[in-house]
Amino acid sequence: MSVFRVLKCLNIKGMFSQVSTVEQGLIDIDFKRLHESLVKHEGKQVRLSCEKWNPTKTKEQLGYYYAAIAQPFGDHYGYTKDEASEVLRQECMLSKVVTINKEEYVIRPRVSSLKRSEMSEYISRCIQWLAEQDFRIQTPEEYWGI
Fold it and tell me: Residue 28 class from Cβ within 10 Å (0-12 exposed, 13-18 middle, 19+ buried)?
């Protein structure tokens, strides 16, 4: 099943947005909320569109990454958490090579651009790499007290 976000795109406050799961080509729509949003734009053109919804990383993932991984790593080696994050990005982030005018460049995404599943994979690679450096960090379960 795919997850889609249904929204009216106008860059106007009061925008209708809903996440629904597509089942047999259909979704449930909260027509009352949609109507309330549309009434605010009476006489104006609006656009209703569907797009695949790819949830972004969570605040918990970011909190764990910076507080339990980057900060302790940076403290141990004398880096700021941002410097430590950059080192981790260089070591643990999957990269791709792009060619521009026959020159090859290695591109690594920024942590801020990662989606939820990508962030989970990145955190796992950081934990593994740090373990290989004999640097132990708290697991997510230890950090969150689960």
Answer: exposed
Domain ranges within the chain, ordered by starting residue: 3-52, 59-144
The whole-model pTM stands at 0.61
Strand partners, 17: 7
CB-based contact 57:122 (threshold 8 Å): no
The C-alpha atoms of residue 2 and residue 35 are separated, in whole angstroms, by: 25
For strands 3-8 and 17-21, give the pairing: antiparallel
The token duo for 121 is 């994979």
pLDDT at 5: 42
As a whole number of angstroms, the distance between CA 140 and CA 35 comes to: 42
Rounded mean pLDDT for each run of 10 residues along the chain, 146 residues in total = 40 59 79 81 79 73 93 95 93 90 90 88 94 90 84
- Report how far residue 9's alpha carbon sits from residue 144's, in angstroms, rounded to the nearest whole number: 38
Answer whether 65's CB lies under 8 Å from 48's CB.
Answer: no
Tokens for 51? Answer: 């797009």
